[in-house]
Amino acid sequence: MAESGLAMWPSLLLLLLLPGPLPIAGTEDAAFPHLGESSQPLLRACPLRCSCPRVDTVDCDGLDLRVFPDNITRAAQHLSLQNNQLQELPYNELSRLSGLRTLNLHNNLISSEALSGPSVSAPVPPCRGSGCQPSDGDLPPHLWGEAGTQLSNAGLPPDAFRGSEAIATLSLSNNRLSYLPPNLPPSLERLHLQNNLISKVPRGALSRQTQLRELYLQHNQLTDSGLDATTFSKLHSLEYLDLSHNQLTTVPAGLPRTLAILHLGRNRIRQVEAARLHGARGLRYLLLQHNQLGSSGLPAGALRPLRGLHTLHLYGNGLDRVPPALPRRLRALVLPHNHVAALGARDLVATPGLTELNLAYNRLASARVHHRAFRRLRALRSLDLAGNQLTRLPMGLPTGLRTLQLQRNQLRMLEPEPLAGLDQLRELSLAHNRLRVGDIGPGTWHELQALQMLDLSHNELSFVPPDLPEALEELHLEGNRIGHVGPEAFLSTPHLRALFLRANRLHMTSIAAEAFLGLPNLRVVDTAGNPEQVLIWLPPTTPRGPRAGGP
Question: Domain 51-115+143-149 carries which CATH code?
């Protein structure tokens, strides 16, 4: 799994974060619920050039509007004005739309000053001085959503959200807030505050949001002093907390038991203390990539409270060994780009349920990988050892492996014994090593009965290795020294679909006319980047005979 990865999130979250057109009648959308069956479309006016697919929906998206549209029905609950050129918001008009639940102002020309509209009594010139303070009535309580307006806290008075008890999702991301706004609606379920300048969450700011399930605070300026033990402790429904890309040096205290996903990547955390995780016993995903965890960053027992932990991301730290005493139920350990130099016989015995192990781009050498290091990992399906210093395949690989990544090592030989029993392996990458055909022992591929993808690119092969696995569908041989492909090169691979031979030493007649006979599924033959265009003889099932291969 990769950092910027979180694929596990449902598509609903993407709909909330990314602006888009309002739904048309008859579509299902959790953000824009349907009217009840008893409600019928009414004959009603609609603003010029806008569309009103439902009685509660007004869509003025992307019309190049410069002024706020008139004639908006009072029944409007969902109003889209995104992708226009609005510069101000008329307070009185917005106040009239008291039933508004969703206002989308993404991608306009609205400034902070535009949100501080004129008072009811008389027009007031825009406030431009640094000491200006808007009055309590400057921001309508229902004005919220994805307004790309560079708000500062001065534009959000203490009672800005008074009367907004129905709001479930509030997005104030991509603005200039320096602290968490006070008096947020207690009905919130999702709160987006990413990409601001927040350095502090005032005490009690989140004390009433007991229904909050998702809190996004990434890409801010939070430090340890900006949080305290009570900051998150009252959030009894919180499941997802994103604090990545801040300046934290420790795991925050007071995490709620309901928390399932905690994202702390790209901070300055040096050590993880068990006491800080004691309350978050329900945590399933812990992301700590790109911090400053060194050799003592994850001491034995640090993660003991997290008995149900499923995935641990530690990408890009300074760990020199697999952390000891990992939670027994751990399923994915993602540890690339660290300093791990050895795997002992007992380093992984505490996690027999691992299905994914990623140790890519560490400092593993063959002499320091114990032959019993993987013996307990019977459930392992994916093993990534790319970018290390291995000179031979590790012994004792789990027989249930589906994917094995060994590219960018220093492999000089392949022998049958390390691959014995891997009859479920489907993908094997051996790219960017130092393999020659003579270094591949007889019978090496014999037991790889399920292998569909084999990557031998960027080695030192002078011809196609013989006796390749019968199930093979995709074969990568680019970047080798192959100068000739004989008539029997692919007799053992009748299911081959894609063959990559680019950047070798092939000339026009280097490939025998009979080489591709018996390959009815062959669809791709890539011979670009060779000294000459290569003449390719297609199987006789194709009406035409030879053709020149290339890009």
Answer: 3.80.10.10
